[in-house]
Amino acid sequence: MTLIISFTADKFPFLLGDLLLTTEGKANHPLHIPSIGEVPLSFKPFGLCRKVSHFSNVAMVWAGYYDLAKPIIKKIYQETLDHGPITLERLDNIFSNLKPHLIKALKDKKVCILGFIVDPLSNDNIGFGVNYQNLSSSLIGNVKFAGTGEGVFKKYFDHQSSFELAQNVSAEENDFGIAICKALTLAGILLQLEIGTHKTLENFFGGGYEIIGLKDNQFILCDDIIFAFWFAQIDDEGVTLNPIMKFFKQSYDHNDILIIRTLEMKSPDQKNPMFLTIREDEIHYIAPIYREPTPQEKSTLAKPDLAASLLCSYVLVKSKKGIEILSKFDWSKNRQIPLRFVDDGNMMEMQVQAKYIEDILNIIQVHQ
User: Is 7:143 a contact under the CB 8 Å cutoff?
Assistant: First the structure.
């Protein structure tokens, strides 16, 4: 099913949604997802779909049954296409005048929705939702959430989770940039849990995550990002930091098509682990629920490069204290992040700044 979350970070509203679709019946076809590659059929994979939708002055995330959520989200989307920005009252009317089986689906909690609307009359941003729970998290404060991931989310976020913000957040990013980092910390913890334990997939959610925020009454997708995943171990001999084995490049095309390029080292070169000679390189094009791209549109979707404006590094640290997930964020307006890739067609080289490695080690040592 899914996990959807609505929260506020440093006074900025955010929505988070996963990407995985599952089936109640038997899964018959293999599915590759950004986080782990091929999903075991026991997790009942069905496909990938954006749970985050935004159009005009509305942004929302959905959980539950795809076939029931689709006409609801599509109805709101069509309303904004036909009439432009809608008021909260008009949104209430749309929900009230849905077809009977969709109203029943909402009543039976088969569809959950969380969202924000920027009221065109008052210019206020207003949160809304149906069929959700509340949680007070010391990481991101008061949270609304729903989906099959409710239990996992409660377990890991109903207490303080360790994280570290980079010191080199550029001045122009300011408060909103720091708020994005806090939101991405949440996504990174979920991704590390998925890669390392499959706990999310066992509860039928995950696959990847996307985040949308609201700044100056404009919805902004977290775009042009590279996620990098590290593993570190602390023992009596000190800190051992393993080479990076997995990366995601996350971006958007045609406004609402999510593109995730995944790069995974299967076997690092022993002489130079920065040369990715044995790797898997996949691209996922993920459409929103409210429309299906045309064949012509699909043919023009870009292959994402491996540069980015933001590098999100997540370190799973195993020690005598247990497991912690630490985060570091590096912004670059000119897309010169400290971890870059050079591909000559035959071999891909990973270029890593020495200071970046030092910063990662410092973050780990601080939390020993």
Answer: yes
Contact predicate 10/141, CB 8 Å? no
DSSP character string of 180-211? HHHHHHHHHHHHHHHHHH-HHHHTT--S-EEE
Q: Which of 49, 38, 78, 6 is closest to 260 using CA atoms? A: 49
- Tell me how far apart the alpha carbons of residues 170 and 357 are, in angstroms, rounded to a whole number: 19
Question: Please, which pLDDT band fits residue 167 given cuts at 50, 70 and 90?
Answer: very low
Distance of alpha carbon 21 from alpha carbon 40, whole angstroms: 14
* pLDDT value of residue 244: 67
pLDDT tens string 235-286: 888 888 876 678 889 999 998 999 999 987 765 555 555 455 546 788 999 9
Question: How many Å apart are CA 155 and CA 294, to the nearest integer?
Answer: 41
Backbone φ/ψ region at 109: left (φ over 0), alpha (ψ -120 to 50), beta: left
For tokens 């051992």, what's the residue?
A: 240
Judge whether 46 and 219 are in contact, CB under 8 Å: no
312 class by beta-carbon count within 10 Å (0-12 exposed, 13-18 middle, 19+ buried): buried
Place of tokens 């080199």: 168
Measured between alpha carbons, how far is 192 from 233 in angstroms, rounded to an integer? 15
Whole-angstrom CA distances from 213 to 65, 118, 184, 216, 286 are 25, 12, 11, 10, 19
User: What whole-number distance in Å separates Cα of residue 259 and Cα of residue 325?
Assistant: 25
CA distances from 85 to 81, 157, 295 (A): 9, 35, 29
- Output the pLDDT for position 163: 42
* 141-166 tens-digit pLDDT: 889 999 988 888 887 776 544 444 43
For 95, phi then psi, to 5°, come to: -65, -40
Strand partners, 16: 5, 211
pTM of the predicted structure, to 2 decimals: 0.90
Strands ordered across the beta sheet of 58-64: 52-55, 58-64, 111-118, 125-130
